[in-house]
Amino acid sequence: MNASGLPLANNTPLCYSINSPPFKYNPPIASAYYSTIFTILGLPSNLLAFIVLVKAFRRTNSRSRSFFLIFLGGLVVTDFMGLLVTGSITISFHATKFNWRNLDPYCHFCNFMGMSMVFYGLCPLLLGAAMAVERFIGINRPFARSTKMPKGRTISMVLMVWFIAGCIALLPLTGIGSYHIQKPGSWCFFLISSKGNDLIFSLIFSLVGLMSITVSFLLNTVSVVTLIKVCCGQDRSQRSRDHEVEMMVQLILIMLIASICWCPLLIKFLVSAVTSVAVSEDELLFFIRMATCSQMFDPWIYIIFNVSQLRAVLKRIYPRFDWSRSSIMTLYPPLGNTLRRLTRSSLGSTLGSDETGETGKTNVIPPSSLKHPPPSP
């Protein structure tokens, strides 16, 4: 049924034309534990990851790494705000059991939550694709990017991603698609339909998400192959690639998390819109919760790869604890060795070089300054 193309009976607002609250409360489906756990675990994780990224950004002198950290910062802010906005609404509903029609008779609040769901859902996928493009250019076309490119241009790219996701989220307000209250009444989302303008918006949302993941996969694959050739080839001694390997590992992990968490939802939406097979309430809630898991897993990638900054933060929070002995590296030596290799650039990126050809200072004494002892008689 396409609500956007039919007249509303009894002047019923559009967001209540399909499902009208109050709904019968069904604990197995409408459990408050999911949203509560996601919010409690996700918000502190993203906040800690943001602090770690800020400290890493201040310490690095590598231009490519600073660009990458700006993208990561934008992704952390997006995940944090997404959990904060949507989590606070769903938790408030489960705590108070408010009636949407009494609280929001004109669908303003429902439209806001629907836009938030779409905006904070597409932003991480689009940012992942933008990060893949930046790393592809930095690794495969290092001279295509100016050595004096300001950091403000990277910030502009993050803002552009937010602008594109915001424009897509606003489409239902222009008539392309429509936001509706979803059972059990704790959230709003767009109508998944195979008719009219709802079909167009369902295709836009699913195709934009799937295209972002595809672009990330293709460009990251090419970048990894290039890094392997450089690191294993004859020119491996020309410049350090440790920081580039670290960034690519983080980017690949972000891509894998996004693919695992989001592809089932996006594919289900696409198939449902094309084949007219309705998505059940249980399936929709399961896929939405699965996609939300990415907002909890993403920040721990940045935290683990910046162990040194994490320990500095923890020392300030609890200075009496002996962090030098009870750290991950000392408790698990094999894991510690791996983390040292992967985070070498975060500990000493000022001594390395990036793709722009900038090199740090070294302690090597030039041969001309060495004094030879006088010949013996």
Written as H for each helix and E for each strand, in order along the chain, the element string is HHHHHEEHHHHHHHH
What's the oligomerization state?
Answer: single chain
Low-confidence stretches: 1-9, 321-332, 342-371
Span of the ends, CA to CA: 105 Å
Shape: globular
Structural class by secondary-structure content:
mainly alpha
**Biggest beta-sheet profile:** 2 strands, antiparallel
Query: How would you write the strand order of the largest sheet?
Result: 1-2
* Computed Rg: 25 Å
Strand content: under 5%
Count of DSSP strands: 2
Q: What is the overall number of helices?
A: 13
Helix content: 55-70%
The whole-number mean of residue pLDDT values reads 76
Brief account:
The protein is mainly α and 377 residues long.
Structural account:
By secondary structure, the chain is mainly alpha-helical. It has helices at 32-59, 63-96, 100-103, 108-140, 151-170, 196-232, 242-275, 281-292, 294-304, 307-317, 328-331, 333-342, 344-348, and strands at 179-182, 187-190. The chain has 13 helices and 2 strands. Strands 1-2 form a two-stranded antiparallel sheet. Helix 2 (63-96) packs antiparallel against helix 9. The model is unreliable at 1-9, 321-332 and 342-371 (pLDDT under 50).
